[in-house]
Write a structure and sequence with these properties.
Radius of gyration: 18 Å
Shape: elongated
Structural class: mainly beta
Number of helices: 1
Largest sheet: 8 strands, antiparallel, barrel
Order of helices and strands: HEEEEEEEE
Helix content: under 10%
Distance between the termini: 32 Å
Number of strands: 8
Length: 169
């Protein structure tokens, strides 16, 4: 391998998306598996990550998301850690895969707290010009959150599949 190919390159990455998910909500963790109730719900997420791309195809990022759950209505705000792998070095018109995980923070009475969130997804980037690209991704998400109005019932558990539309600056 030549010396040029072994040199490390680092660049900045900002990806922001709006997601819609179809949830299977299993209600509360203090009930036994036989007592779990299943219901269908949905949610919307606004997600932004900022990070560094190493060797032109691996990104490590941190970010924040605002998640609005519709069935059992609540807002949550996970702080995220994100790792992505891109299929080509210039990240124009390429595929990517990612793993995102985070911990919810409670920063006002309007938001529920304590819990975790994670996503595993794949997507496609469409280059528009040198400064902006768009992307779409499909993902599986899981969330475990303590809801203030149901504290005695344990954490609320959600599994979801979703679709995101986003922009890269």
């Amino acid at each position: 391998m030549s010396q040029d190919k072994m040199e490390s390159t680092v660049s900045y990455l900002n990806m922001t998306s709006l997601s819609i998910t179809k949830n299977t909500e299993s209600y509360f963790s203090k009930f036994g598996k036989d007592d779990e109730k299943k219901s269908d719900g949905s949610s919307f997420d606004l997600n932004t990550i900022h990070g560094l791309v190493f060797w032109d195809f691996i990104a490590l990022s941190t970010g924040i998301s605002i998640d609005y759950n519709i069935k059992e209505t609540f807002l949550s705000t996970p702080i995220l850690l994100d790792i992505r792998v891109f299929s080509n070095q210039d990240r124009d018109n390429c595929l990517f895969a990612y793993l995102q995980t985070g911990r919810n923070i409670k920063w006002s009475d309007s938001f529920d707290g304590n819990g975790t969130s994670s996503k595993l997804g794949v997507g496609l980037i469409f280059a528009d010009n040198e400064k902006i690209s768009y992307y779409v991704d499909l993902f599986k998400k899981s969330k475990d959150i303590e809801l203030i109005k149901h504290q005695n019932e344990g954490n609320y558990k959600i599994t979801a599949f979703g679709l995101s539309f986003g922009i890269i600056f």
